[in-house]
């Protein structure tokens, strides 16, 4: 038997009374539409899931309070000074840890067969991935908002006003967008949710703590300081510190480093995640 | 009559295991094709290839006249998939699940709402419409799952082990739904490990074992292949069962099946029954029951593969009346 090269529309339509559904062609507009629909699905879960609300609000509140009031005085002799130093760092750290959710949700959706449902529909191939990532960007944004609100409730005042707040939010969002492909890749290649949790978390600790997020690298032993200097999180936090807190901290140099790292991470992990997504069956 | 599904020489390997080793199959338009086989025989892999979720390593297949690899989008516009591996979102309500799929299929917002309501009503889920699917019972979830695959009114439906794990009541309900769809003109490909299910629903049956097709035909034809009839024997005293088995084995020269105090074996020659009776008489074994009947699909499987299907309910005997 030879396979017909032209779609035998007659065979498809005369055989049954039903008509085909969905878009006849998958245009970029369809990708946007499908992606946004699946983003809506991803966001519906925030409302339905008590753990998520807890993770997105309670955890950041607790972290800010603990770091400021437990370590603040000991670190810098004045908890208020440490609070201002800490804010950009803890925003970055919380958002970085939130990216782990991307991998976990992708893994769960695949395990449960939900992606198979979407993939058997006439929708753009990548829309489930797009929906998951866009939904998570909203989560990252909420994390930033919650932490800033907590910080301001305990007296933090952004030195560069609203512009600084928006600019530093943009910086961490861009960086998180790069990181979420690492998480997505881990979520797509690991078999179990537990493995995603473990592997997704492991690299986050040295990256977020071995940086300028909580302590000035000048106060670290030489080798640790050297690590912190090249750590992308240090560049992100330094940029945010300059934008958010103000003062004489330089912004341009760490910003360029941040953008460079963002490009490199995305260039490596986006193709890996995309390939894992295509291969995952 | 055209074929709704045609597959030729499908091969699929996963690392070092060969899941499919040259599968050929055809499903007639408007009919139910039952794919029968034990776990790991390649049923699900076949469904995943035909529903465009997986690409074959070799061979090709068309669904509704479209190639599953090169014209996957056209295939997806015509199929519905339900089963082990196509699920509903537990966090979303029944209503949201269906409306989301309708929206993805380009229904307008009001049309999506209407379609969801219609399907929820049809599957008796209206009362649970606004509850998250994770609160549903097993039967309700399967119904929602099936409803989800019908949103776009597919002309072809893949049901991958649709009743595994369901209680008999829910299973019967689902069977009725499938029959209703067939009446509407939908072509169904159903995989199952339940022989009774294939016998109840399928017009044609194809039997898989270890990634190959070992038999195909109508349920009646398959039964005929296991011998025209099955000899069934029950001894009065259980201790005679061993000797009775030996006699039946010697006469029929076929594999013999035990269940409880019963022995059964395929009969190819009408002269075998008197031969068995004579030998039982010579051996002075009192018989409680001795009968010839049509074979069940399980016996067909035994005859075809040399082993029984490893399904949990292999002992279920299919009533002869099921097929006129």
Automatic annotation (TrEMBL), chain B:
Q: Does the keyword ATP-binding apply?
A: yes
Pfam families reported for this sequence = ABC_tran, DrrA1-3_C
Q: What is its main location?
A: membrane
Topology term for the membrane? Peripheral membrane protein
Protein family: Belongs to the ABC transporter superfamily. Drug exporter-1 (DrugE1) (TC 3.A.1.105) family.
Q: Write the record's keywords in alphabetical order, separated by commas.
A: Antibiotic resistance, ATP-binding, Cell membrane, Membrane, Nucleotide-binding, Translocase, Transport
Specify the ABC transporter domain's residue ranges. Answer: 5-235
InterPro entries, alphabetically? Answer: AAA+_ATPase (IPR003593), ABC_transporter-like_ATP-bd (IPR003439), ABC_transporter-like_CS (IPR017871), ABC_transporter_ATP-binding (IPR050763), DrrA (IPR005894), DrrA1/2-like_C (IPR025302), P-loop_NTPase (IPR027417)
> What superkingdom heads the lineage?
Bacteria
Keyword Transport assigned to the entry: answer is yes
Upper lineage = Bacteria, Bacillati, Actinomycetota, Actinomycetes, Streptosporangiales
**What PANTHER family is this protein classified in?**
ABC TRANSPORTER ATP-BINDING PROTEIN, DOXORUBICIN RESISTANCE ATP-BINDING PROTEIN DRRA
Q: What is this protein called?
A: ATP-binding cassette domain-containing protein
Compartments, as annotated in UniProt: Cell membrane
Q: Which organism is it from?
A: Lipingzhangella rawalii
Q: Which GO terms describe its molecular function?
A: ATP binding
Q: Which Gene3D superfamilies has this protein been placed in? A: P-loop containing nucleotide triphosphate hydrolases
């Amino acid at each position: 038997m030879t396979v017909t090269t032209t779609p035998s529309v007659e065979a498809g339509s005369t055989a049954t009374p039903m008509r085909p559904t969905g878009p006849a062609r998958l245009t970029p507009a369809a990708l946007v539409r499908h992606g946004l629909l699946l983003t809506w699905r991803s966001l519906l879960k925030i409302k339905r899931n008590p753990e998520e609300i807890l993770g997105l609000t309670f955890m950041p509140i607790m972290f800010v309070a603990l770091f400021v009031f437990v370590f603040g005085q000991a670190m810098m002799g004045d908890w208020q000074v440490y609070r201002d130093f800490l804010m950009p760092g803890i925003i970055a750290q919380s958002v970085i840890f939130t990216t782990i959710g991307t991998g976990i949700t992708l893994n769960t959706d695949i395990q449960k067969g939900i992606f198979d449902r979407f993939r058997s529909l006439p929708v753009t191939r990548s829309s489930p991935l797009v929906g998951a990532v866009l939904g998570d960007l909203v989560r990252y944004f909420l994390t930033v908002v919650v932490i800033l609100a907590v910080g301001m409730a305990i007296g933090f005042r952004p030195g560069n006003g609203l512009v600084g707040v928006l600019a530093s939010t943009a910086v961490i969002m861009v960086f998180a967008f790069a990181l979420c492909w690492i998480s997505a890749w881990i979520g797509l290649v690991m078999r179990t949710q537990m493995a995603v949790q473990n592997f997704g978390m492991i690299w986050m600790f040295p990256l977020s703590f071995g940086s300028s997020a909580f302590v000035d690298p000048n106060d670290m032993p030489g080798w640790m300081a050297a690590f912190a200097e090249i750590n992308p999180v240090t560049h992100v936090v330094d940029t945010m510190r300059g934008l958010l807190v103000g003062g004489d901290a330089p912004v341009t140099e760490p910003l360029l480093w941040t953008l460079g790292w963002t490009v490199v991470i995305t260039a490596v992990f986006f193709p890996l995640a995309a390939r894992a997504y295509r291969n995952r069956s | 009559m055209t074929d709704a599904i045609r597959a030729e020489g499908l091969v699929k390997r996963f690392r070092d295991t060969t899941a499919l080793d040259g599968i050929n199959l055809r499903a007639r338009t408007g009919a139910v094709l039952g794919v029968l086989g034990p776990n790991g025989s390649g049923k699900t892999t076949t469904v995943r290839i035909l529903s465009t979720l997986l690409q074959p390593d070799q061979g090709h297949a068309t669904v509704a006249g479209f190639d599953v690899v090169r014209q996957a989008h056209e295939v997806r516009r015509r199929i519905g998939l339900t089963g082990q591996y196509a699920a509903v979102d537990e966090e979303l309500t029944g209503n949201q699940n269906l409306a989301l799929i309708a929206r993805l299929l380009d229904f307008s917002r009001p049309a999506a709402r209407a379609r969801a309501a219609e399907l929820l009503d049809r599957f008796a889920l209206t009362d649970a419409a606004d509850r998250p699917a994770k609160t549903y019972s097993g039967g309700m979830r399967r119904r929602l799952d099936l409803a989800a695959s019908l949103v776009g009114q597919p002309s072809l439906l893949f049901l991958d082990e649709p009743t595994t794990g369901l209680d008999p009541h829910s299973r019967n309900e689902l069977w009725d739904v499938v029959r209703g769809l067939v009446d509407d003109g939908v072509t169904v490909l159903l995989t199952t490990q339940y022989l009774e299910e294939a016998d109840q629903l399928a017009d044609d049956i194809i039997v898989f074992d270890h990634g190959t097709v070992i038999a195909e035909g109508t349920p009646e034809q398959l039964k005929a292949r296991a011998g025209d009839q099955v000899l069934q024997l029950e001894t009065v005293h259980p201790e005679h069962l061993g000797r009775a088995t030996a006699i039946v084995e010697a006469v029929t020269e076929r594999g013999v099946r035990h269940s409880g105090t019963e022995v059964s074996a395929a009969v190819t020659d009408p002269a075998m029954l008197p031969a068995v009776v004579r030998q039982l008489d010579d051996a002075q074994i009192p018989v409680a029951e001795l009968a010839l009947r049509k074979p069940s699909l399980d016996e067909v499987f035994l005859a075809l593969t040399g082993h029984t299907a490893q399904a949990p309910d292999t002992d279920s005997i299919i009533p002869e009346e099921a097929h006129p």
